[in-house]
Amino acid sequence: KFDPVDPILPGWDESAEEDAPLANWPLGLARRPIRRRRPDLYTSRVEGSTRYGREFDLMLLSGVLLAGGLVADLLTPQALVIAILYNIPLALASLSRRRSAPVVMAGMAFGANVLSGYVNAIATRPDTIALLNRGLAAIAFVLVAFLSVALREASGRAARFRLEEQRFRREEALRSFLR
To answer: Which of 4, 96, 111, 179 could link 24 by a cystine bridge, Cβ 3.0 to 4.6 Å?
Structure first.
């Protein structure tokens, strides 16, 4: 059996040899070698995957913080602007790998803002300044969600451009070597 392990290029994936025979060959004849992922803090050591690791923890923490903010908002008077604290779980959700996480959390924050505003308005008479504060907080939810999604897309494009530049430089070096 051919052993493609090369000391210069560490991180060959042995499982890729069964999938594609040329996957582990040097110079990337079929595809680049797959680097093994080191287990990190969020890796599930029992299941051996990250499926319910970091993503689940972030969304759970965001949900708990959102619920805590809702309770705090319901227990405080209307004049105190607690609704802006809903941006904390929204910012945490933007760290998730899922593109929809900040948008979903912004919708949940908006719902919590409306619910607590309604409950506070029933408990006491509606205050115009408090309603304006809640409206500004809702605008902040939309802005945080939009900017986090836009930042993620921009960083993805920058990473793709960087990889394309590296690939171009490797091809140029190979062409100059072959001439």
So the answer is: 4
